[in-house]
TrEMBL record:
It comes from the Bacteria. Transmembrane segments: none annotated. InterPro entries: Flavoprotein-like_sf, FMN_Rdtase-like_dom, NAD(P)H-dep_reductase. It comes from Streptomyces achromogenes. Residues 7-154 form the NADPH-dependent FMN reductase-like domain. Pfam families: FMN_red. PANTHER family: CHROMATE REDUCTASE, NAD(P)H-DEPENDENT FMN REDUCTASE LOT6. This is NAD(P)H-dependent oxidoreductase.
Length: 198
């Protein structure tokens, strides 16, 4: 691996009362810091102003002039600076939370030509339906989704004391982070070499 640390943004996507997302997000951040290839930043959407009513203009065309709420600035700045992103999402009714959709839709170029990986949790499916929908949406924004994600089925019995009970989980996390690091290297070099044509 190159010695350059990439800026990794971990987004905790659920804002639901009693949510489990911060537990998962904290563990993922711990794995990312131990990996050694990333400077880790965590943004919890529960602390971000995310109105569902959007301005008439597209964020793609408005660019820096897009009128976002002041309370969204920490998310916008973190997305802009990130070389790689991990989204931590639950599954609600076979999809992902409205909070995540709002966070995505308020931005565009901040996702472009950046790698995004997923850590999901839920019932029997472990959040995989949510991830499949997120992959479709983020592809539209020209992000590059990483194949090997982390999924935690039946998280309510699969975690204890803030950690997954599966002894293989840290190894799966390392695979995700290794792929994310490779894509971060490749895509950052591409963005620095030439503007993305999209």
């Amino acid at each position: 691996m190159e010695n350059t640390a990439h800026k990794l943004l971990i987004i905790i996507g659920s804002v639901r009362e009693g949510r489990f997302g911060p537990v998962v997000g904290s563990w993922v951040a711990e794995q990312a810091r131990a990996h050694g290839g990333f400077e880790v930043d965590v943004v919890d959407l529960a602390g971000i102003d995310l109105p569902l009513t959007l301005p008439a203009a597209s964020p793609k065309h408005a660019g820096a002039d897009y009128p976002r709420p002041a309370g969204m600035a920490p998310l916008t700045s973190a997305l802009h600076d990130a070389d790689a992103i991990v989204i931590v999402t639950p599954e609600y009714n076979h999809s992902y939370p409205a909070s995540l959709k709002a966070a995505i839709d308020w931005h565009f170029t901040q996702w472009t030509a950046k790698p995004v990986a997923f850590v999901s949790y839920g019932g029997a499916a472990g959040g995989r339906h949510a991830v499949l929908h997120l992959e479709n949406v983020l592809t539209e924004l020209h992000a590059v989704t990483v194949r090997d994600g982390l999924s935690f089925p039946n998280y309510f019995t699969a975690w204890q004391d803030g950690r997954p009970l599966d002894p293989g989980a840290p190894g799966y996390a390392k695979t995700l982070l290794d792929q994310l690091f490779w894509w971060a290297n490749t895509l950052r070099a591409g963005r620095e070499a030439a503007p993305y044509p999209g």
